[in-house]
Amino acid sequence: MKLPGTTQASVLKALDEHHSWHRGGAWKWDTWSGTERVMKSLAREGWADVTEARPGVSDTYTITDTGREALRRHTEKVAAEYREARVIGSVLRP
Question: By the 8 A CB rule, do 31 and 49 touch?
Fold first, then answer.
């Protein structure tokens, strides 16, 4: 399974916590357009569902089970890398 990048994982986490996202809603990641770009990338990967709105209304995005699994795996990978770096750092210290 492909893993999300750092920004994608951060947005997935926020999407999971807030349950959904739409332009003009309660939260954004940096800018509205930047958040929308990330949301579209999440939808392309199958990590988010998009409910297309009628003209003039923003699409709504929600996290999928696949997105939750990708986020879990990303978090585990980052935690393992952190633990490895701590071990290497402690070995290299005089």
Answer: no
- Domains in the chain, CATH or no CATH each: 6-92 (1.10.10.10)
Residue closest to 8 by CA, chosen among 57, 58, 70: 70
- The angle, 0 to 180 degrees and rounded to 10, between the axes of the packed helices 6-18 and 65-92 is 130
With beta carbons less than 8 A apart as the criterion, state whether 9 and 74 touch.
yes
* Local structure of 48: helix, strand or coil: strand
Per-residue model confidence as pLDDT tens digits over 27-86: 998 899 999 999 999 999 999 999 987 777 789 999 999 999 999 999 999 888 887 776
One-letter amino acid of 47: W
**pTM across the whole model:** 0.80
